[in-house]
Amino acid sequence: MLGLYPNYAFALLWISPLLILVSLQVLLKETHIFSPLGNGDWRFVLASALAALFCGVFWELWNFYSLAKWVYHVPFVQRFHLFEMPVLGYAGYLPFGLECSVVAEMVLGRKTTQ
């Protein structure tokens, strides 16, 4: 799908690793990052997503002034930029933060979302 419609399916690259990892945890009947949401506890999910967004702003700041930099071409949102990244492109950092938390929990072998 991504190869056929890259301008429409590019966001799948941002969310597919998260969906795959959490799906595996669900299939294995493990606690996952979204488990506390059933009790109304959004703290860990929000903290993970916002931490990545906060770091992302600094990454893009440093990218803006570097000699070898990323130049972004995000379909349909090339209008408003904050540093080199279109503002709506920062939304990709939100699932990235969740992915980082899921991988950290898997590697460390502990559950921080209980």
Output the keywords.
two-stranded antiparallel sheet, 114 residues, globular
Task: Walk me through the structure.
The chain is mainly alpha-helical and 114 residues long. The chain has one domain (6-108). It has helices at residues 6-9, 12-27, 43-64, 93-108; strands at 81-82, 85-86. Strands 1-2 form a two-stranded antiparallel ribbon. Strand 1 (81-82) and strand 2 (85-86) form a beta hairpin. It is globular. The model has no long low-confidence stretch (mean pLDDT 88).
Largest sheet report: 2 strands, antiparallel
Chain-averaged pLDDT: 88
Helix content: 40-55%
Q: Identify the strand order in the major beta sheet.
A: 1-2
Query: What shape does the CA trace take?
Result: globular
> What's the tally of helices?
4
**Rg result:** 16 Å
Distance between the termini: 36 Å
Unreliable stretches covering 5 or more consecutive residues = none
Domains counted in the coordinates: how many? Answer: 1
Strand content: under 5%
Give me the secondary-structure category. mainly alpha
For the secondary structure, the number of strands is: 2
* Secondary-structure element series: HHHEEH
